[in-house]
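DOMAIN: structural biology
WANTED: fold as C-alpha cells
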Amino acid sequence: MVKTRKNQPVITALAASHPAVVPVVSALSEETIPEKAPATDICEPSTSHEVDVSRPVRVYADGIFDLFHFGHAKALEQAKRLFPNTHLIVGCCNDALTHQYKGKTVLSEDERYESLRHCRWVDEVVTDAPWVLDIEFINKHKIDFVTHDALPYSDASGQANDVYDFVKKLGKFKETQRTDGVSTSDIILRIIKDYNDYVMRNLKRGYSRKELGLSFVKEKQIRGKQAMKQLSDKMRDQRVQVADRVRKHVAAARILPKVDMEKNVKEFAAGVEQLVDRIVSGELGVDLAQNADKYVSGFIRQFEDGYSKLEQAVRTRFMTRGRRAKAVKAPRLSRLQ
C-alpha cells in the first residue's frame, strides 16, 4: 500500500524553466511515496539532467560500506527517495581495490555485499564496483544519476582530483547528506580505545589467545591489568563502605585519629595500584607478569579478609573497653544505694 501527494508547485517550476519537458514532468502530478516515508525526507527532482520519470529512475550510489551502520542506511534512504519511482543501484568495491587505495577493512567483500542486499532501500547490488566511474560503466548500467555527499573525494588511484568530478560535469550528480556522529572509522576507534575490555570479553566467552592474536605474555598482561582495574574498583568500594564502619569503631575506641585513618587507606591503595602496574608491565620479572592475574586475584581476597579482620579486631576491642567501663561504674552505683 502506498500514499500519494500533490506536487503541483514543483511541476509549475519545472514547466516554466523547461517548456520542452512539460509532458514528462506532468507525470509528477501525483508523487508515489512509500507508506513509511515522511514527506520531509523527500528530495525534489533536479532539473540539471532530464529523465523520463514515467519509468523507474536508475540512481547509483557507491562506497565501501564496511561495518554497515545506520549512517550508510540513511544515505541510501536519501538516494532511494530522490524520485517517486527510484531503482537504487549500489556499487561496492572489492577487497583488492579497497585495501590498495583506502586500507584494510573489517568485513570481507562478500560480507559487505551481503550487508547491502539486506538493506530495505537497495534494489540492486553491483559487486566489484570501479573506484572511479566512467561513461562505459554508466551506460552499461543505464544510470540516470549518481549520489554521494558533496565533499570532493580525492582519488588515491591518481585518476582524478575528485572521483565524482566526471558525473558532476555531466549534470548527473545528486547530493546526499552525511549523518553526524557515526562512521566506520569512529566505530573502529571505539574498539581500539577499549581494546583490553573487548579482549577480556572474548576470553571470557571461550575464545583462545591464539584466535585473538595474542602472545602468551600479552594475554597475561591484559588479564593482570583487568585484575588491577577490578582491584582498584574493589578498594574504592571498600574505602567507602568498610573503612567508614571501621572509622566509627576506631573513633569510638580512640585507637587512631580519623585523619590518620583516611591518609593510611589512601596511601595503601595508591601503593598497591603502583605495585600491580609494575607487575603487569614486566618490570618486576616475566614470571610475575605472566601470573599477574593469579597474584592480583589472590591479593584481592587477602585484602578483603584483612579488612574484615581489622573491623572485627576494632569491634572486639571497643566491646572489651565497654565492658571494663561498666565493671568500674557498677561498684560506685552499689555504694550510692
User: Anything to note?
Assistant: Residues 1-47, 333-337 have pLDDT under 50 and may be disordered. The first strand starts at residue 2 and ends at 6. The longest helix spans residues 292-336.
